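Bench log. Compound arrived from synthesis this morning; before running ITC I wanted a structural hypothesis for how 3-isopropylmalic acid sits in the protein. Inputs:
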Amino acid sequence: MKKSIALLGGDGVGPEVVQAAVTVLDAVAEKYNHEFEFQKGVIGGVAIDAYGDPFPKDTEKLCLDADAILFGAIGDPKFDNDPSATVRPEQGLLRMRKKLGLYANVRPIQTFSATLDTSPLKRVVVEGSDFVVIRELIGGIYFGEKGRNKSGTQAFDMSTYSVKEIEQVGRFAFKLAEKRQRHLTLVDKANVLETSRLWRERIQKMSDEFPDVTVEYMFVDNAAMQLIKNPTLFDVILTENMFGDILTDEASVITGSIGMLPSASIGEQTSLYEPIHGSYPKAAGHNSANPIGTILSAAMMLEYSFGMTEEAQAIRSAVTQVLDAGYGTKDLVVDEPLGTQEMGEKIAQNLS
Ligand code: IPM
Ligand code: MG
């Protein structure tokens, strides 16, 4: 198969982890006789520095023309520490999500036996955890009306959801649950929020269409507790944008290193794949960041966007083999850590 992939390295360690994933994708192409064509674009802080715009028109076009997008990370402390900055790297990410209609953010949480002890949680608690969070990505408080009063002494951020938005991401979650353990948990705050009541009402209605899926409802405060107390309870979690943002960072500690976790953002046409970690500016340029989250994101891309299930599985097996053999990057506290690129090469070698 011939596919074109847009590469958006972004800020911090982003370009390094994306490059390591390209090394693995090149090995997949060779082994399975595919042709992957890579095109680079800029986004985030680097795009502000170069063009004064965190999501330039050229990058938008590149994304719309590609078969899939592999993304690194966004964010630069020089903007974080300046609340008055009107142009910010994160705006690039949010505009891209909206423009590409990336309505479902898929964040699988899985443990690897080789790295279980790097989790701050007890082995007995986290062992066997295997669930997926589906986070709604282009609605809610992130995209609602926001502003200040005239004197600037009051601020507001509106959270709005439509039935259409809930059903689109809801359908995706139900279908995924059907392919997994058929257990869907809707996480909301329906005891307080009207948007949450609409979510509950619609998901309840939709459950008639998916009789094989057991649906459970959980308030977000309780879910935050259950996630680290009883993570094996969950199969598929469905939640709104803001709750999903917070809960997935929390869930990442189950695996030990946030550097291991991939994600997919599903769009109506093009989808985007990225590690869930941030730009980690302190490590930028040191070839020390863990590329596994990005490499596993590339595996999700092969499966979800290109239907290459066997190839995706081959990447996952290669990652497990490399970890089982005792290799790791700095974050995994191994004696002789591999660099970012060396980890990519090690996984690529195990493929072939
Ligand atoms: C994420 C990030 C983003 C978000 C930031 C960088 C805007 O935290 O992808 O989870 O809040 O969605
Ligand atoms: Mg986040």
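What the model suggests: Residues 120-255 form a domain with the Isopropylmalate Dehydrogenase fold (CATH 3.40.718.10). The radius of gyration is 20 Å.
ITC booked for Thursday regardless.
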